User: Fold this.
Amino acid sequence: MARMAASAAEPEAYPETAQKRRGIMLVLASPPGGGKTTVSHALRDSDTDMMISVSATTRAMRPGEVDGEHYHFVTREQFQKMIDDGEMMEYALVYNDYMYGTPRKKVEEQLSAGRDVIFDIDWQGMRSLSDMAPEDVVTVYLLPPSWGALEDRLRARAQDSREEISRRLNKAQEEISHYSEFQYVVINNDLDETIDRVRAIVTAERQKRLRQPDIDSFVETLKPD
Assistant:
């Protein structure tokens, strides 16, 4: 039997593009060699609504790095002025030598536009961001599948000296000890699976009611005429 045509047109659905939301600050942390940079880039490259925050630093530029793309390279005097002027969301002294920090303006513009900002920072930076904007921050810690796997990953980096590898391994012990401060923990055993799991976390966090400022107005339309 042929299906009968509907007697009236179906009501038009609320277009997804019209649903506004506030972006999230995704803090993705791991010990050195834990995969946070690779996962961050994979998320950004597959989603136009995600960007990676570009930190400011006082360390020297390394071969292959581009100012404004990898970091904003500034002097210590410039960095201190940014702090004094309230232009930093968070900052820290790393390895008792170089300063790293997150400039505020660009991040706030992206969040207001509904874009998510990925932060490749450590547990100290996570604490600062969480204290400043607890409703915006989502924290994920990537653990290595084993200590031996982490050692292998660090030694596979041809550009690092033996002394640098040793320093990074010592730093990894300290970093891992703070995993319990994060909202989500993912064991990075398989890279593709890890990326999928972090992406699922982002998808779920985007649907939280507090990040949908227009949802109450939309619900008001769900009433009989």
About this structure: The beta strands are 25-29, 50-52, 56-57, 72-73, 88-94, 98-103, 116-119, 137-143, 184-187.
